[in-house]
Design brief:
three-stranded mixed β-sheet; oxidized purine DNA binding; adenine/guanine mispair binding; Endonuclease III, domain 1; 4Fe-4S; alpha+beta; Nucleoside Triphosphate Pyrophosphohydrolase; three-stranded antiparallel β-sheet; Endonuclease-III-like_CS2
């Protein structure tokens, strides 16, 4: 089917006129920088392009090459990542850079070698090879899944239809033109999905594929792809303690190296659970003894659950037990130099106003 319809010609012709200008993309006629591709693709995992751009620019300013990133401390990398979320990506990115630096200093050009690196799966490996090295791989992300589902009018629901969509997407670049311009073709599919074949209100009238898109021809593009209804997110509850000394320093501690917000700093907090525990139990858990006053509640939405946290502020002298021996005092003006999540910054900002 794909050899009978000039998908590549239509897609690349459109891309040559309408491609997005992004800081990690090579300018026309220049060779792509695989490090830029690797960095941007890891940042773009579950994160919007507009959000990623300033972080990408900041990383390149501080870590111009992969070796610079590998030689940086994890603490500095995590601090630079603060606010971008999904912090395991930053840890894996740093480990990946160190692995590559140890081996040869060059990002691998082989699919399996790439997948062996921390934080790189099927999609990221395909993106690096196609965009960074012009190899004929099709990187299938949500944009490409959506374009493919509409192009072939696939009406079975996601996520069960993912393997079929991936297989169909990979047929789109079978022609010589697409394979010779593998990087452009991959980015063209991303751009069509992001700017034209959008999740809601697709702009079929200006789409380069409208005359060969089954969903467009059948007037069903706006309902595809079909998704199974998601289960309602569970809610977790926690208690956090805001403790500030007379030097405007805030007591913080490091979260575990695995799990949500891994390795970032937080206020002394109870374990998040299915219901609130008492303030007395939270004080015991954190090892921060003293008298506290409740000052409010913060709500934060994660990908898989909603979190509600009651905030308590210290109103008496503080005594730290053995449990809190690794806690640290950090001045409020210096928080940006440490890996502190958006959630924690929100909680600290709220607490300092009370």
């Amino acid at each position: 089917m794909s050899t009978q319809i000039p998908y590549a010609t239509l897609i690349l012709r459109w891309y040559d006129r309408h491609q997005r200008i992004l800081p990690w993309r090579a300018k026309t006629g220049t060779i792509p920088n695989p490090y830029y591709v690797l960095l941007s693709e890891i940042m773009l995992q579950q994160t919007q392009v507009a959000t990623v751009i300033p972080y990408f620019n900041k990383f390149i300013e501080n870590f111009p090459t992969l070796n610079d990133l590998a030689e940086a401390s994890l603490e500095k990398v995590m601090a630079m990542w603060t606010g971008l979320g999904y912090y395991s990506r930053a840890r894996n990115l740093h480990r990946c850079a160190q692995e590559v630096a140890k081996q040869s200093g060059e990002i691998p050009k082989d699919y399996q070698a790439l997948k062996a690196l921390p934080g790189i799966g099927d999609y990221t490996a395909a993106a690096i090879l196609s965009i960074g090295y012009n190899q004929p791989y099709v990187a299938v992300d949500g944009n490409v899944e959506r374009v493919t589902a509409r192009l072939f009018a696939i009406q079975e629901p996601l996520p069960m239809i993912k393997p079929t969509l991936a297989a169909l997407a990979k047929t789109l670049n079978e022609g010589r033109e697409a394979q010779e311009r593998a990087g452009d073709f991959a980015q063209a599919l991303f751009d069509i999905g992001a700017t034209i074949c959008k999740p809601k209100n697709p702009s079929c009238l200006i789409c380069p594929l409208s005359e060969v898109c089954k969903a467009s021809l059948e007037k069903i593009a706006d309902i595809l792809p079909i998704r199974q209804r998601k289960a309602e997110k569970p809610t977790k509850y926690g208690i956090s303690l805001f403790i500030e000394n007379d030097k405007n320093q805030i007591l913080l501690r490091k979260r575990p190296e695995k799990g949500v917000l891994a390795g970032t700093l937080e206020l002394p907090s109870s374990i998040w659970s299915e219901q609130y525990i008492s303030i007395e139990q939270a004080i015991k858990e954190t090892g921060c003894l003293g008298q506290y006053q409740e000052i409010g509640e913060i709500k934060h939405v994660f990908t898989h659950f909603t979190l509600k946290v009651k905030l308590f502020k210290l109103v008496s002298d503080l005594k730290l037990t053995q449990v809190a021996q690794d806690n640290m005092w950090i001045h409020s003006d210096e928080l940006n130099h440490y890996p502190c999540s958006t959630l924690m910054k929100k909680m600290i900002a709220y607490s300092t106003k009370i």
